[in-house]
Amino acid sequence: MLRHEFRPGRLIAGAAALGTAAAYLGGAAGAWRIPWFTALPVMSGGLALAAVATAVHYRLRRRRSATAASSENTEAPASTSGSQAIR
User: Fold this and answer.
1) Where is this region: Disordered (predicted)?
2) How far apart are CA 9 and CA 53, in angstroms?
3) What percent of the chain has pLDDT over 70?
4) Predicted pLDDT of residue 32
């Protein structure tokens, strides 16, 4: 059983933040030189991509639940089973 649902937007936003942090950590350690403004495009692009992934996931989840709800109405109602009388 799943403990929580999958959220792709949060995964992408977290990966962008970790990538930016890793780039600055490498710059601080002297491994390479990173300009100070690198975080702006990386984080902006990561957040935009996360927003698109969230919107797509939301639409797919809504479509899936709507399809499941429409297929539940194919069975006979409970009142025709004989256990309850319709007045």
Assistant:
1) 64-87
2) 5
3) 75
4) 87
Say how many Å lie between the first and final Cα of the chain, rounded.
42
Confirm whether pTM is higher than 0.85: no
CA 84 to CA 50: how far, in whole Å?
51
For 36, what's the count of Cα atoms within 13 Å in the CB-facing half-sphere? 0
- Radius of gyration over alpha carbons of the chain, in Å? 24
Query: CA–CA separation, 40 vs 9, rounded Å?
Result: 18
Residue 27 belongs to what H/E stretch? Answer: helix 8-29
Placement of tokens 């992408």 in the chain: 12
Half-sphere exposure of 20 (CA within 13 A, CB side): 17
Degrees (nearest 5) of the Cα angle 65, 70, 73? 130
Q: Assess contact for 45 and 13: CB atoms under 8 A.
A: no
